[in-house]
Design a protein that fits this description.
Blueprint lengths: L1 E5 L6 H11 L3 E3 L3 H9 L16 H16 L2 E5 L5 H13 L4 E7 L2 H9 L8 H4 L2 H10 L6 E4 L5 H13 L1
Parallel strand pairs: 1-3, 1-4, 2-3, 4-5
Helix pairs in contact: 1-8, 3-4
Length: about 170
């Protein structure tokens, strides 16, 4: 099984995923961003882009890597990864379904002011124009398709442990 934690930068995906992993027996975190980083290491050779998700190999590589890890290790993969392009999500979820891998899709949501404050106040990564640039695309995806495709957990007033507990409780029910 895959527990996919979607949402934009500042929603708490990375922190929450590590906590969810602690709450779900036989689970491990697989950050699909590592697949993108591998592709970025290939450059030059791939077209210029502001987001590795736009490279067509990224999506099937995420599916294949997840499938191979599950075939090898079993259990549950907790995947913190923002996917805001509907066609990309459909490609990934269809690929996982083709391999009969169940996916529980969650969106960690927070209001725009909270997200902006978290990004601007990030003491680890620092303020990031790249991360701030995704606030509006996230809002658009949330309005048009994303919140209909997932269980939404509003993290605006939640700590990461509280959000992780909500994910784990939802998985148990």
């Amino acid at each position: 099984m895959i527990v996919w934690l979607n949402g934009t930068h500042g929603a708490g995906k990375t922190t929450t995923s590590a906590l969810v992993q602690q709450l779900i027996p036989d689970s491990r975190v697989f950050d699909a961003e590592k697949v993108g980083e591998t592709l970025m290491d290939i450059t030059p050779g791939l077209p210029e882009t502001d987001n590795f998700q736009h490279w067509p190999p990224w999506r099937p590589l995420v599916v294949e890597t997840a499938r191979r890890v599950l075939d090898y290790a079993g259990g549950t993969l907790v995947m913190p990864m923002t996917v805001l392009v509907e066609t990309y999500w459909r490609e990934i979820s269809a690929g996982l379904a083709q391999h009969e891998i169940p996916v529980r899709h969650f969106v960690l949501h927070a209001d725009q002011d909270t997200l902006r404050g978290r990004i601007e106040g990030d003491t680890v990564m620092g303020p990031s124009a790249f991360r701030l640039a995704y606030l509006e695309p996230y809002a658009e995806a949330a309005r048009t398709w994303l919140h209909k495709e997932a269980e939404v957990i509003d993290t605006t007033h939640l700590t990461p442990p509280q959000a992780a507990r909500q994910v784990a409780e939802s998985l148990r029910s």
